[in-house]
């Protein structure tokens, strides 16, 4: 925005408002209209009633000027915010086929030179069979400002075989053993029934890097080929020296730590190991190389090993077509991805195992829309290790409904959260915990189907799997929510589940204070109507007036002494506060004004005799009493509910059926 | 839960929930999506899987630029011969609220 433009906008806006004010004054006050009529006498005869018409026109013109001023101010505000200065949507990144293939291949080569093969193998096994390795996931959520902060702690466990290769690799560390030929350390102890076979009569081509290269028959004698069930090697002397010059791999593991949706930004992600030390994760290019290794192996398990050179080239072409799809920047729709997959595997479809082909398509569909964040961690001393990551989760839906919008406009914080349950199906044991702010307890904690919102009960869990177990700790007046799920990994068809957690303030809380203040206000106003009914204009009781006017700020001070507490209170509490303040103010205004005679009554009350009553103030007192009564009803329900929960916890078994699930 | 990825899911969810509920956006695949990735393995297949990965890793480790160039040439020729598709364009990125990123 140019210098001086702000003053021009403000000047225009103020000028329009000033003109509108002048028109209103001219239209309402008698003098200006009469002056105009005297100055132009024919108006009075030409238009009847000319004076009234002029006044109406003047008011309409004033309204129009106010509307224009509002638009001017809004345009100015909009331009000053500089909303249009964001970078905008990122463009798609088109990549030539050869460039894409080169990137993929280079990332695979780099990974194979950087990390020991057992590390890549372990990564693939954890990625594809997570429940075998992830024995416990703890999902902890807490509210931070307007968002949620989640901390996911995963306990991994492995069998001795899983880490054997890594430890051998670390221990041996000699060029001959940890270089390219190091795989022999694994292959000698573990024959590979499904690995590449001896290769037969294939001819060597460049494409043979992904399938077994042909070598002279007389050289296949050593045990160096891990894929050879017979333990024979293509190159008994070991592969050529590593071009990168690295011959010793560090003892590290590659762990799939986070699965994230492509296109979604990870906010404030931090990763730690069990000791709380930061854990590095791989770059996108390196992660691509690791995942490509896994996909290549799944591809080979699906389509088998190519026998002839022509077939090898065909397999390689189809494999790289799938890799290009998976590593496409951005998220492709499932329908497009599946169609692409089907068309591209068609040339070699006949050689595929149907079940494996279906699984491979699923893996590709997943990786087309999601990516893997891979952590590099040191192998544990034992067989279990812990990794943890934290990130911020934005929330949406706060202003979707009128009720939600009201809460936002009143500055109230959300107290009902819906959190997707994505992780229980990939681990044997899953814990979810969530804690709200101070002086709150869990009122409702339920599990629902994401699509329909239907509640999930134990019968539905049993339908998913006989071994699945779910328990929710709620209706116990606890300040935190806790869900425990076990063996959901045995569910044949994982459902998209969400949790709904509703927090409420511990009664009486702000609602109780508001109720008492509303009752006190109503009592004072009513007594004022009965005992100090009239202001005769000469002796206004300043004390009474001050007391009435002080009720609102006192109420606000009492209830809102903690801003956080007030933000977490209910709409009822907020409305009660407003009503209490409004009745106090109206009563004060009625008291200040000298009351007309018809507003005063003189009833006769037993024991007191005849009294004077200010009916206006009395009516306000009655309204205040009704407000207080409603607030007390709500408070009583909340208190009874809370006390019932406490009593049921103290005497388990006396609770109503279904209270503990 | 990703409203952008699966139009309608989030809206249905919001319709079925209390009016003052807010939905946490995890930015992660849902359980049904994760199930697509599962590939349970027997001990025998796990061994075969590991051996295959180690074998190709060893092969790639020794690949020099000349072989890379030859491989890419053959790959391009074969892809052209088979008439393989070009990758479909990506969807517009979303921040999960059904609204475009950026």
Automatic annotation (TrEMBL), chain A:
It comes from Plantactinospora alkalitolerans. This is Uncharacterized protein. The lineage of its organism: Bacteria, Bacillati, Actinomycetota, Actinomycetes, Micromonosporales. Residues 170-251 are annotated as: Disordered. Keywords: Membrane, Transmembrane, Transmembrane helix. It comes from the Bacteria. The chain crosses the membrane at residues 46-67, 509-532, 544-562, 574-593, 613-633.
Automatic annotation (TrEMBL), chain B:
It comes from the Bacteria. Residues 79-102 are annotated as: Disordered. This is Transcriptional regulator.
């Amino acid at each position: 925005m140019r210098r001086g433009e702000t003053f021009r906008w403000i000047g225009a806006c103020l000028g329009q408002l000033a003109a509108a004010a002048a028109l209103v004054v001219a239209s309402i006050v008698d003098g200006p209209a009469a002056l105009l009529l005297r100055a132009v006498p024919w108006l009075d005869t030409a238009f009847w009633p000319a004076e009234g018409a002029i006044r109406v026109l003047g008011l309409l013109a004033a309204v129009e000027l106010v509307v224009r001023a509002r638009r001017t101010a809004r345009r100015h505000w909009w331009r000053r915010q500089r909303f249009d200065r964001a970078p905008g949507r990122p463009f798609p990144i088109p990549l030539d086929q050869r460039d894409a293939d080169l990137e993929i291949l280079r990332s695979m080569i780099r990974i194979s030179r950087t990390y020991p093969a057992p590390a890549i193998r372990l990564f693939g096994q954890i990625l594809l069979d997570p429940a075998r390795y992830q024995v416990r996931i703890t999902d902890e959520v807490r509210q931070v400002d307007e968002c949620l902060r989640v901390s996911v702690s995963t306990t991994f466990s492995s069998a001795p075989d899983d880490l054997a290769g890594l430890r051998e690799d670390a221990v041996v560390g000699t060029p001959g053993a940890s270089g390219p030929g190091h795989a022999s350390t694994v292959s000698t102890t573990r024959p590979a029934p499904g690995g590449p076979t001896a290769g037969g009569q294939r001819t060597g081509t460049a494409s043979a890097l992904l399938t077994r290269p042909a070598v002279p028959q007389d050289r296949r004698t050593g045990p160096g080929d891990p894929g050879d069930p017979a333990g024979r090697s293509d190159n008994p002397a070991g592969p050529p020296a590593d071009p990168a010059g690295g011959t010793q791999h560090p003892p590290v593991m590659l762990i799939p730590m986070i699965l994230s949706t492509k296109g979604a930004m990870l906010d404030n992600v931090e990763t730690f190991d069990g000791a709380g030390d930061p854990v590095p994760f791989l770059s996108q290019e390196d992660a691509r190389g690791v995942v490509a290794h896994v996909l290549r192996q799944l591809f080979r398990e699906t389509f088998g090993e190519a026998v002839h050179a022509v077939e090898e080239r065909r397999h390689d072409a189809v494999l790289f077509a799938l890799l290009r799809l998976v590593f496409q920047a951005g998220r492709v729709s499932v329908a497009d991805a599946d169609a692409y997959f089907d068309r591209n595997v068609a040339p070699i479809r006949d050689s595929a195992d149907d079940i494996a082909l279906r699984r491979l398509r699923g893996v590709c569909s997943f990786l087309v829309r999601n990516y893997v964040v891979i952590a590099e961690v040191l192998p544990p001393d034992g067989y279990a290790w812990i990794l943890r990551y934290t990130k911020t989760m934005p929330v949406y839906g706060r202003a979707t409904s009128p009720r939600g919008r009201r809460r936002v406009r009143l500055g109230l914080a959300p107290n009902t959260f819906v959190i997707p349950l994505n992780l229980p199906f990939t681990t044997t044991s899953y814990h979810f915990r969530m804690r709200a702010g101070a002086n709150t307890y869990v009122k409702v904690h339920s599990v629902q189907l994401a699509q329909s919102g239907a509640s999930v009960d134990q019968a539905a869990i049993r339908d998913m799997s006989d071994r699945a177990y779910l328990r929710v700790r709620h209706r116990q007046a606890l300040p935190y929510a806790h869900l425990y799920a076990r063996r959901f990994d045995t569910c044949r068809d994982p459902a998209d589940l969400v949790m709904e957690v509703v927090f409420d303030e511990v009664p009486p809380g702000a609602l109780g204070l508001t109720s008492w203040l509303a009752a006190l206000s109503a009592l004072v106003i009513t007594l004022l109507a009965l005992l100090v009914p009239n202001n005769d204009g000469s002796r206004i009781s300043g004390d009474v007036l001050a007391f009435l006017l002080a009720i609102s700020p006192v109420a606000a001070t009492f209830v809102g002494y903690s801003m956080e507490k007030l933000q977490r209170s209910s709409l009822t509490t907020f409305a009660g506060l407003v009503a209490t303040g409004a009745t106090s103010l109206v009563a004060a205004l009625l008291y200040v004004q000298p009351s007309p005679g018809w507003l005063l009554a003189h009833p006769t009350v037993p024991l007191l005799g005849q009294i004077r009553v200010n009916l206006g103030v009395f009516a306000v007192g009655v309204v205040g009493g009704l407000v207080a009564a409603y607030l007390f009803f709500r408070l009583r329900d909340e208190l009874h509910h809370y006390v019932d929960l406490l009593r049921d916890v103290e005497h388990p078994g006396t609770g109503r059926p279904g209270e503990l699930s | 839960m990703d409203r952008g990825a699966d139009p309608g899911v989030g809206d249905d969810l919001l319709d079925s929930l209390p009016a003052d509920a807010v939905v946490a956006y995890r930015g992660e695949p849902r359980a049904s999506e994760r199930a697509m990735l599962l590939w349970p393995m027997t001990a025998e297949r796990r061994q075969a899987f590991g051996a295959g990965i180690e074998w190709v890793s060893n092969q790639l480790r020794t690949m020099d630029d000349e072989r890379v160039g030859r491989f890419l040439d053959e790959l391009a020729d074969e892809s052209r011969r088979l008439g393989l598709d070009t990758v479909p364009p990506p969807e517009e990125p979303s921040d999960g609220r059904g609204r475009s990123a950026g």
